[in-house]
Each structure stands twice: as structure tokens, then as C-alpha cells.
């Protein structure tokens, strides 16, 4: 029997940890223009480097995060933080785009500690409070995404952009020291499955649980359209207003609405069907792009659209996490791995194709791309997956 060791201060520590580490993968977005200028690159090339970070994160999710089901999760988290420090330092010293691209890939791979922390929090939380606990930890994750863009953009406006990564390395080192003393010890002390056996079970879990497939597709769509916007915002601000990385970073602060809403969304996911909450996320994200397409030429239009988009992303994130962490606690890390792999594959492709469509068709091309992706999301959620998810109870008993 597991021993519950989760209190409010522990949940707060987990949320702060998720924020600091996940920030690594988003520092590049507001400074893409600065990187392109320093290395004399086309915007699309820098977009490909940003995609490398997201791809690295996705494959870290697929190959590293499942280890949380077969080894001491506290130990895994501490080791990942050390690797994240090394990756950030490599990005800081990179003298050319090739080494920086390699560092960006490593940053993605080694920054998956929050995705071990999230199922760990869900595992330790009482069943009736799982949505609330996950909502609080995920709000920390969103704070990291939010502040990473702001810090990166503002710092790069008055110092070399590389210093962002040195500051990141110092922050993670400080976090490591705190977690060494405060992070709860994993109550599960023995694991019978080897890494190879565990990895082989992942495709079987995807096949067995339709709700897991549905969540992965939904995460792909919602984070994909989020990154389509954030990867191209700095270029739109340059084109429309003559602004730069500082303003792009400051716009990211508007995501505080999603942070504040996350605990409430978690409670809603405990009280209502998570699938209903996910549908709300799709509707909000679509509404955001309608606002971007019609009113982005006005600052208030950008502000309104960002608030709605971040709310839509957060509705989907919290509700999807709540339903996949309720399937089987023994495979919680693998469920999270599959879901977040789909989530960040969407983010990676959103970053790449967002930049590509910006170069081909400008802002309306970016908005059109997002709408097409959202149409796919609506089809999957409202037409395709309702049929297979209704058979979830049968699948669970097989």
C-alpha cells in the first residue's frame, strides 16, 4: 500500500519545479528573430531549430518519462535536472547555429522532469482530489511556459540572448538543492519490470485504451495551434508594429489567466466529465483564432485572443491529464508519456509549420493553418472518438 505524502506545500514545490524546468523549452520563441540575425539565418531555419527542442522533448517523453513506472521517481527527477543544467550551459556557450541546434535538441530531451512530477503528483493524490492537485501542478507548468517567454524576451532586449540559458542553468541548480531536501521519497520501492519490457508495453497501452488515444490526439491539436501562434508572434509584431523580442515576451504575461484558471479547471474536471471540459478547450482555441484573424491589427485584438487561446489550451491540458491519470496508477508515467508525446509532437510541428506558413502567406496563412488543425481536432473529439471511448469500460476489464 502506498503512503500518501502530499500536502499543500509539497504540491506548491512540485508546481514551482515544473515551472522552472519546463521554461527551458520555451526560451527560444521570443528570441528567434535575435538568433536569426546573429547567425544570419532565414526565419524558417530558426523555426526548424525551435522544432528540434519540441521534438527532443517529445522523444524524451516517449523514452525517458516511462522510466517513472519502473524506477524510483525521486531519483529519476534529480538525475534529469542535472542533465538539464548541462544542456542549458551548452546552449549558453554555443558559438554557431550547429552547436546551438544540438544544444536545443538536448534541452528538449532533458527537460522532461515535469512530466515525471505530474504523474507522481497524481499517484500521491487521493482519488477525489486528483483533478485539483493536477490542476495546481499544471498551473505551475503554465507559469513556466508563461514566464519563460517573458523572461527570455525581456532579457534579450538588453543583454545577449545567450545569457538566458546561463540564468536558466543557475535556477535549475538552485532547484536541485531544494528538491534534494524536500521532494517526497517514492513510496514504491520495488519494481519487477525491466526498461525493455516496459517500453514494449507502451504500444499495447495505446491499443488497449481508446481514451488514451483520444487524449493524445486532442493534446496534439491544442498545443499545436498554441505553438503556431507563439512561434510566429515575434515576426508579426515586427511586421505590424515594428516591435521585437521584449514586446513578444511581455505579451506572454497575458497567459496569467490560464494560470489562475487551472485550479478551477481541475475542480471542474473532478465534477464534470473531462471530455466536456476538453470540448470547451477546442471551442475557446477556435474562437481565439477568429479574433486573431479579424482583429490582430489592433493591440486589444491580440490581447483578447491570447487570453482566450491560453484558456483553451489549459482546459484541454488539465482535463486530459485528469482522465488519463484515472485509468491505472501502475502505468501513470506511461500514460503521461503517450499523452505528452502527442502534445509536444503537435507543438513541434506547430512551431515549424507556423514559421513556414508565415513565410508563404503571412498572418492570414498562420491563422488559416490553425483553423485547419482545429477542424481535425473537432472531428476527432466529437465524431470519431465518442464511439471508441464509450467502450472504455470494456477495455479496462480486458
Verbal overview:
The structure is a single chain. The chain is mainly α and 398 residues long. The protein has a single domain, classed as Growth Hormone, Chain: A (Up-down Bundle), CATH 1.20.1250.20. Helices cover 80% and strands 0% of the residues. It is built from 16 helices and no strands. The longest helix is centred in the C-terminal third of the chain and has 58 residues, at 332-389. It starts with 7 loop residues before the first helix and ends with a helix. This is MFS transporter. It comes from Lactiplantibacillus brownii. It is a multi-pass membrane protein. Keywords: Membrane, Transmembrane, Transmembrane helix, Transport.
Question: Features of this protein?
Answer:
398 residues; mainly alpha; Growth Hormone, Chain: A; 80% helix; disordered C terminus; MFS transporter; MFS_trans_sf
Task: Report the helical percentage.
Answer: over 70%
Look at the structure and give the CATH class.
Mainly Alpha
The helix count comes to: 16
Query: End-to-end span in angstroms?
Result: 24 Å
Number of domains: 1
Largest pleated sheet = none
Which segments are poorly predicted (pLDDT under 50) over 5 or more consecutive residues?
Answer: 389-398
Under CATH, the homologous superfamily reads MFS general substrate transporter like domains
- Order of helical and strand elements: HHHHHHHHHHHHHHHH
Strand content: under 5%
Protein name: MFS transporter
Pfam families: MFS_1 (PF07690)
Subcellular location: Cell membrane
Organism: Lactiplantibacillus brownii
Amino acid at each position: 500500500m502506498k503512503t500518501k505524502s502530499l500536502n499543500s506545500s509539497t504540491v506548491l514545490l512540485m508546481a514551482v519545479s515544473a515551472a522552472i524546468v519546463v521554461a527551458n523549452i520555451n526560451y527560444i520563441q521570443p528570441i528567434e528573430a535575435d538568433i536569426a540575425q546573429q547567425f544570419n539565418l532565414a526565419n524558417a531555419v530558426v523555426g526548424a531549430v525551435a522544432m528540434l527542442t519540441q521534438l527532443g522533448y517529445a522523444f524524451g517523453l516517449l523514452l525517458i518519462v516511462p522510466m517513472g513506472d519502473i524506477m524510483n521517481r525521486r531519483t529519476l527527477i534529480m538525475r534529469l535536472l542535472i542533465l538539464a543544467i548541462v544542456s542549458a550551459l551548452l546552449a549558453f556557450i554555443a558559438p554557431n547555429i550547429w552547436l546551438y541546434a544540438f544544444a536545443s535538441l538536448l534541452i528538449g530531451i532533458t527537460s522532461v522532469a515535469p512530466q515525471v512530477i505530474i504523474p507522481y503528483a497524481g499517484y500521491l493524490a487521493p482519488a477525489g482530489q486528483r483533478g485539483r492537485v493536477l490542476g495546481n501542478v499544471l498551473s505551475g507548468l503554465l507559469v513556466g511556459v508563461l514566464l519563460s517567454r517573458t523572461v527570455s524576451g525581456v532579457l534579450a532586449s538588453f543583454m545577449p540572448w545567450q545569457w538566458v540559458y546561463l540564468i536558466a542553468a543557475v535556477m535549475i541548480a538552485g532547484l536541485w538543492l531544494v528538491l534534494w531536501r524536500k521532494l517526497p521519497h517514492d513510496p514504491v520501492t520495488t519494481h519487477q519490470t525491466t526498461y525493455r519490457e516496459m517500453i514494449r508495453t507502451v504500444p499495447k497501452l495505446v491499443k488497449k485504451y481508446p481514451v488514451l488515444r483520444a487524449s493524445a490526439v486532442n493534446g496534439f491539436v491544442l498545443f499545436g495551434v498554441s505553438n503556431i501562434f507563439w512561434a510566429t508572434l515575434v515576426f508579426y509584431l515586427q511586421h505590424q508594429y515594428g516591435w521585437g523580442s521584449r514586446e513578444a515576451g511581455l505579451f506572454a504575461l497575458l497567459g496569467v489567466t490560464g494560470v489562475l484558471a487551472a485550479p478551477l479547471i481541475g475542480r471542474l474536471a473532478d465534477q464534470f466529465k473531462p471530455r466536456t471540459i476538453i470540448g470547451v478547450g477546442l471551442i475557446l482555441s477556435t474562437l481565439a483564432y477568429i479574433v486573431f484573424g479579424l482583429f490582430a491589427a489592433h493591440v486589444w485584438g491580440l490581447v483578447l485572443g491570447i487570453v482566450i487561446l491560453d484558456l483553451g489550451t489549459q482546459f484541454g491540458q488539465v482535463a486530459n491529464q485528469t482522465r488519463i491519470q484515472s485509468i491505472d496508477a501502475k502505468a501513470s508515467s506511461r500514460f503521461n508519456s503517450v499523452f505528452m508525446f502527442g502534445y509536444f509532437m503537435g507543438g513541434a510541428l506547430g512551431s515549424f509549420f507556423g514559421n513556414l506558413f508565415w513565410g508563404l502567406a503571412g498572418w492570414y496563412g498562420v491563422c488559416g493553418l490553425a483553423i485547419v488543425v482545429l477542424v481535425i481536432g473537432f472531428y476527432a473529439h466529437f465524431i470519431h472518438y465518442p464511439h471508441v471511448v464509450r467502450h472504455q469500460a470494456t477495455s479496462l476489464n480486458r
